[in-house]
Each structure stands twice: as structure tokens, then as C-alpha cells.
């Protein structure tokens, strides 16, 4: 991935600090705003047609989420990706989602939603649309939680993985996305067979892929990461 940030997509509406925050939050997660990049209150306020105050509030919220760093007398900068936060979220996801997989395998519910998300990933992969690919990936895991009768579990997990998502938007531009789809198919096949052990193993293998990707991305872009 090039070190130059992509142009920021303008939000459809940004009338409040929360809307500005949500827009910037999405830009950080997708890599449209890169670690170390300076944020200008004046420029962003002009782009969204607001005063600087709601933009300043949005910057503060980004900092509270660990996605920005406010440096007194110097400005606000996009924070680096916390490897500790990535590894923590990955560990929690593996523990929780492997249990969800065992539950789904025992229930043998309708899994058409998981099939649909694999198909959506295939389309996104063919179009080289990494954000759409990752959205379908998330929907696959959300559908598994839904099939387990615990949709709120995915909502809880989703709140933990902001730093993980930043890594994914970097790594999915570099690593083999077809391997990710193959891992999803292995999970789905085990679930459809009602094989709880195989489903758990497939989920663990899938989520451990990040243990290989993280050090490689950190070595390739050391300025983007912090312990």
C-alpha cells in the first residue's frame, strides 16, 4: 500500500460533532487517514461546512477512542495502530467465536446468510474492493453469531476491534484474500456438517492468520504501529 493517503470521501451530511466523528472514524479504519497524518480543524470544518468547535469535539472523541493524538501547541495527528490492542481483540474473538461455532454446529440452523456473505466477498474480491470485502467478512461473523442465537455477542466484539480493523484494511490489500474466503468456506462446511470440533478448529485457524500478518505489516510500515 502506498504511503500517501487516499483522498477523503466527503460525508453526505456532517451537521454535528458526532457525524464528523463517525466520518473521520470510518476514514481512519479504512486507511483513508494514515497513522501520523495531521488533521486540520480549519480544513475539515471548511469541507463539512461547520465551525471549528464541532470538529474539535470530533477530534477529542477520536483521541478518546485511541485513534488520534492531540499534541498541545502542535495539532492533532492520527494515532498509530496499537499492536497490543490488535492482539487483545484477536484473542477475545478467538475464544468467543470458537464457542459460537460449536453452538451453531449443534443447533444446525439455516446458514443461508453465511453463504450470502461468502458470495459477497467473492464479488468484492473480483472488483478489488477491499472495504466491501471486509464488510462482507464482518457480516459473515455477525451471521454466525445470529445463527447461534446470540447476535448481541457480535455487537460486543465489534466494539473491541477498531485497531484490528485498521490492520485488516492494510493487510487485505497485500495478502491473499482468496485464503480468507477459503477459511470461511471451511468454517461453513463444518457448521453444515454439524461437526463442532472441526468448526471450532476452522474458526481458530482463521483468526490466527492475523498472528502472521501483524508482524509482517509492522515490519513493512514501522511508522504505522506502536506496541
From TrEMBL:
Q: Is Protein transport one of the keywords UniProt gives this record? A: no
- The segment(s) forming the HTH gntR-type domain are 14-81
Q: Which GO terms describe its molecular function?
A: DNA binding; DNA-binding transcription factor activity
Q: What are the entry keywords?
A: DNA-binding, Transcription, Transcription regulation
InterPro entries per record: GntR_C, TF_FadR/GntR_C, Tscrpt_reg_HTH_GntR, WH-like_DNA-bd_sf, WH_DNA-bd_sf
Report the superkingdom from the record. Bacteria
Keyword DNA-binding applies: yes
Its name, as the record gives it, is DNA-binding transcriptional regulator, GntR family
Q: Which organism is it from?
A: Paracoccus tibetensis
Amino acid at each position: 500500500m502506498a504511503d500517501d493517503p487516499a483522498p477523503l470521501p466527503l460525508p453526505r451530511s456532517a451537521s454535528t460533532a458526532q457525524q464528523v466523528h463517525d466520518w473521520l472514524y470510518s476514514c481512519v479504519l479504512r486507511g483513508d487517514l494514515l497513522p501520523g497524518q495531521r488533521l486540520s480543524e480549519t480544513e475539515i470544518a471548511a469541507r463539512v461546512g461547520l465551525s471549528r468547535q464541532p470538529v474539535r469535539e470530533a477530534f477529542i472523541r477520536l483521541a478518546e477512542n485511541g485513534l488520534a493524538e492531540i499534541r498541545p501547541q502542535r495539532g492533532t495527528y492520527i494515532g498509530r495502530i496499537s499492536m497490543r490492542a490488535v492482539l487483545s481483540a484477536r484473542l477475545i474473538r478467538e475464544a468467543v467465536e470458537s464457542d459460537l461455532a460449536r453452538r451453531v454446529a449443534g443447533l444446525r440452523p439455516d446458514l443461508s446468510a453465511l453463504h450470502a456473505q461468502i458470495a459477497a466477498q467473492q464479488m468484492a474480491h473480483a472488483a478489488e474492493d477491499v472495504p466491501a470485502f471486509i464488510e462482507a467478512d464482518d457480516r459473515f461473523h455477525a451471521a454466525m453469531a445470529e445463527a447461534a442465537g446470540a447476535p448481541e455477542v457480535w455487537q460486543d466484539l465489534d466494539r473491541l476491534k477498531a485497531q484490528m480493523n485498521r490492520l485488516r484494511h492494510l493487510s487485505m490489500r497485500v495478502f491473499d484474500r482468496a485464503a480468507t474466503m477459503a477459511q470461511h468456506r471451511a468454517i461453513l462446511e463444518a457448521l453444515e456438517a454439524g461437526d463442532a470440533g472441526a468448526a471450532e478448529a476452522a474458526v481458530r485457524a482463521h483468526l490466527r492468520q492475523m498472528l502472521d500478518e501483524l508482524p509482517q505489516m509492522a515490519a513493512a510500515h514501522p511508522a504505522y504501529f506502536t506496541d
